[in-house]
């Protein structure tokens, strides 16, 4: 099977079924700084499992607008390197780091993480937040990430799975990793967050329909797809943030 193009991987990671929608994503997502992974949860997990070491090297793959890296740099003082394929997101991340006074600790670049991980070795913490199967299945992803990981490092993955799926939890041992912690996102607060996010996305898509009526089907299709995704997260998918370390 040929390798997917960068645009195809972006579309898959962002739940976009029509490539024509990609240029409109920055507008649709303009209200969101935190895209996918919850920064507070990840900061708490690093505090818990980071062995109290100072100035760790953090690799944030699919960093979006930099919310996780900026929060880590601001609260923990670690050096963060974020990579994302969407230029506007990277620009936003750079600006946010400067605004929060951690521009000296954060570096953000546009790139294809499938290629860049081959050049990124020796990181103490690797974060892969809500990017889907960008690096392959669960086993392939854990195996690939270890190439960038320091000997005593940790991998933090934010993902959704079904109870019977072939997921990270079931594949960790095959990859020579062990799941040391997991935070599951759910409950009333999660349902409220999903509702707020969906209505914000819907509002921006309706604005685009007003501007580009000839593309009504494109934006309406995206709204329907997002509604289905949020319905799955409410009832079928376990959304969690997991911490993995090497077994030896």
From TrEMBL:
Pfam family, one: Methyltransf_31
Gene Ontology biological process terms from the UniProt entry: methylation
Gene Ontology MF: a single term: methyltransferase activity
Top-level taxon of the source organism: Bacteria
Residues covered by the Methyltransferase domain: 55-169
Keywords assigned: Methyltransferase, Transferase
Family annotation (InterPro entries): Methyltranfer_dom, SAM-dependent_MTases_sf
Protein known as: Methyltransferase type 12
Species the sequence originates in: Petrimonas mucosa
Lineage: Bacteria, Pseudomonadati, Bacteroidota, Bacteroidia, Bacteroidales
